[in-house]
Amino acid sequence: MKTKIRELKSSDMGFITSTWLKHYYEWSTWKQTTRSKVFFNEHHKLIHSILLNSRVLLACSQEDENFIFAYLCGSNEPWGDLLHYCYAKRSLRDFGLEDEMVQAFKKSDKLIHTHAFTKGFMKENNFSSYGETVYNPYLFLNGDYHENFKR
Fold it and tell me: Which CATH number covers residue 94?
């Protein structure tokens, strides 16, 4: 499978928002604690805001860059790499695309991630290339993390 990594285009927003919402609702604890209508409505607003203010990398087909395999959303801050979300299509999750995305994104030895999972790639133990890993959901839930979290 030949892939290339590229930056976000406005035409990618619908795919990213939809897959982020559905995937996270299924793989996190939100499903057990929050009504789906509340989760999808409120999380959608947060995702949209974060996407507009973050670095988004996409792994896509070399032949057709609109055919997206995986994506990563975060930012490289002076205090560490802030990772909001990393996703790969289900049929492609065993090909190492998420690892490839994290390596393309990595600029620091410290990782702060804002989403926690009950299983899958985004569990903390999958970030072994980082020296320090911190889970802090408030940097996502607050939305404006640049002003609310400076070190």
Answer: 3.40.630.30
pLDDT digits (tens, 9 = 90+) for 22-53: 988 888 778 788 899 999 999 999 999 899 88
Rg value, the chain, Cα: 15
Angle at 73 between CA 142 and CA 50, to 5 degrees: 30
Total domains in the fold of the chain: 1
Cβ distance 51 to 8 under 8 Å? Answer: yes
23 membership: H or E segment, kind and range: helix 13-27
Q: What's the token pair of residue 146? A: 């640049």
Report how far residue 52's alpha carbon sits from residue 36's, in angstroms, rounded to the nearest whole number. Answer: 24
pTM over 0.70: yes
Domain that holds residue 13: 3-148
Residues 126, 33, 88, 103: is their CA dihedral positive or negative?
A: negative
